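Submission checklist for the structure archive. All mandatory fields must be present; incomplete records are returned to the submitter.

[x] Identifier: YcxB-like protein domain-containing protein
[x] Organism: Shewanella benthica KT99
[x] Residue count: 156
[x] Sequence attached
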Amino acid sequence: MTSPFSYTTKYSLDKAHFSECFDESVTIDTTWRAYTKALGFFFVGVALLLTGMNAYASWFVIGLGTLEWGNVKFKKTWWLWRQMMSKAAENEVTLTLDEQGIGSHSFYVNSQILWGDVSEIIVTARGFLIKHPAGTNYVSKQVLNETALAFINNKV
């Protein structure tokens, strides 16, 4: 009789980890369509400014367009900055894989994803995207040994 699988490891939520999470889970749209909201705010603001409406409101709308442009242009930088400023940054996380599911435990977060709740596992170049009803989580291959990698690949 084989014993049930269980794997536990620890890693730090550092900038390299957050950067890998972003690179593997976010698709960046570089087409002009990504900037449509920014252009809309900008042109509405200019139109309000040219029609003699409240100048403060007009400049505010133009500023919103500029902020939205920066959000699209510097998406990864902005996202990484927010993660590094969060209270979870630089904390240690204990990752547990077992027959029940994937557990993630730190000072601020205790979560458990049951295998029965997992709707899809997407294998990326450097990890796994685990889709479940509450959202999507990323597990890096760097923190897993060969046995754990084989266990997750069997779940795919």
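[x] Structure attached
Curator remark: Residues 6-14+89-155 form a domain with the PH-domain like fold (CATH 2.30.29). DSSP finds five helices and seven strands in the chain.
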